[in-house]
Amino acid sequence: MALNIETFSNARGGNAFFKAIGHPLAAAKGRALVDRLATAGPVAVYDPLGYAASFAALYDLTAVDIAAVFVQDLGDLGRTVLGRTAQPVTDLAGAGARTVFVAAFDAGRLIDHIGHLLPDGTEVVSLDAMRLPEDMLTNRRRYLDGLNFATNFAFFRDQDGHHSRLVTANYWAGYGGRGLRLWFCLIDAEGETLADWDQELPRSVSAITVDSREVRDRFRLGPFTGQLFLHVVNAAGHDVVKYALDTYGDDDSVLSCTHDANAWPADLYAGLPAPKEDEDVILWVQNSHPAPIPARGVGLNLMGADPIAWLDREIPPFGSYALSVAELLPDARWPQQVEVQAGKHFVRPRYEVVSADGRRRIAHANVERVDLKPDPGIKELGNLMGKGYLLPAPILPRDRFRSIVLPTPMSTAQTTLPLAVTIHDASGAEVARHRFGTLRRSDSVALEIGDVLNGTALEAGYGHMELVYDFADGGEADGWLHGLFRYEDLVSGHAAETSFGAHIFNTVLTYRNEPQSYAGPAPGLSTRLFLRLGPAPCDTLCHLIYPASAPWHAHSSTRLMLFGGDGGEVASREVEIPCGGSLLWRYGEMFSEQNRRAAGDGAYVVVRDVTCRLFGYHGLVSGDHAFSFDHMFGF
Prior knowledge:
The chain is 10% helix and 38% strand. The chain is mainly beta. It folds into 3 domains: 8-134, Rossmann fold (3-Layer(aba) Sandwich); 145-364; 376-634, no CATH class. The radius of gyration is 26 Å and the shape is globular. It starts with 7 loop residues before the first strand and ends with a strand.
């Protein structure tokens, strides 16, 4: 059963309320508040802002003797709240309640408004009993300001030779943030807190690295697999906590990287691949809330198929469970894909592919939209916006790698997917095209790019592909076009995969907030990408793509800026990428040994371009033994 909470709206953005009541530091206070109400009945609930149901979704109120529920807005009269019919707050005096529970933060003003309605001796409590410490608040005047809850979760493991490394940048300093610090909370698979700590951040846009081995040594912990919770205090500019997460092992059988978790739990996730015959695909179900996920609260089904297989076990608050796809869907096989019935219980989940030879890689599923419908206007974009929506992804050097694309439905409204993929060499020239036709929702068609090229060589040995709409055979589109891209090393046998969604790129005309901008309104026509650099002996690779829905500047004017761990610029390189083309480079070749030595540990690169929007992918290379690959994040 899905949680009755609002986490994210594409119209309003992220909802800070569920973060406020679900914060690890608020959880114990929330349970104490419920215990207090359970002994103070009868209780009248005053719900002026509509938060009572969401609070009850995370905190069990069945032991509370609720006499009645009252509302302020006449439009809310008669609706059912906590199983009671909402009444006007002016009737509060006759409720016969010993206690009034005001379901709101910053409740002082709301309480003052109803003071004349309270019989003598009535106790009043509110959600302010759950507030975080004042020194953790960016905006102390408005508790539910999104910047007060710049938080996220990360998969985190140090067990059986497997380790994790989270890397981000203090990009909030670049937006004027001062007195910045990060609060971390490490939670094990049973939902128990293993450690928590603060890290002061310098005023520069410096790198931040958290390594599971160092955390384990520092706090003298045993093996663990669970979640790392991050809270940025005094954030500015962004309430989104972005990061790159590397997983690595004591040997080269484990190496992968993945993106941040997307901090708003969703009803559905998609793009989870079924295993090959010699693989196990594990979905990491990691509870994001202080309430248990009930048995049959999480399920899996094949994309486009109605039968849902439910997980018949409870997962504790903030707990983690390794759910093998084979446990619920034993006959599912690649290239079939799986839809995750998540019920808003967890943020965008990681999945781990375990091969028979012991190699492991981690990637993430994506949010499946439930609020979209087909948009007939997309078919007409070609007149003014050329390709319109497109999804770019690398084609790695073909003498070493296989590059595979799997279109993935990512909206409940997508019953058909009219698609094609175009192949471009590094110069931007289109050298091949494959038409998928109009795929049904249940179709799972994985395409190896070598089969499309059919012997055609890419001039530089690499290039990129673009997944685009193709309406030649009909079909509908909604702009939420996604794909999974898998890369297989022909020498080592290692693999990596990444997934993302389409956007409109590099046009001055806008359509439905596209070309997307990370800071400010559309169009987004500039680039600021973060490239974390791996520790020795790994080298770092970066594949930058200059996608253009319509003709734009003939070449990019891209600056690669190398920063030391303290945020000071060490060196920079200027590169040009042809419009519609790409550039594949390595850190060890782009910057001199002297520059790399001066940058030292914790170094990173910012990819900056004020003339166009680039799309980037990054990874680590461990000699000829293993590699990782995922898309980059911007800020």
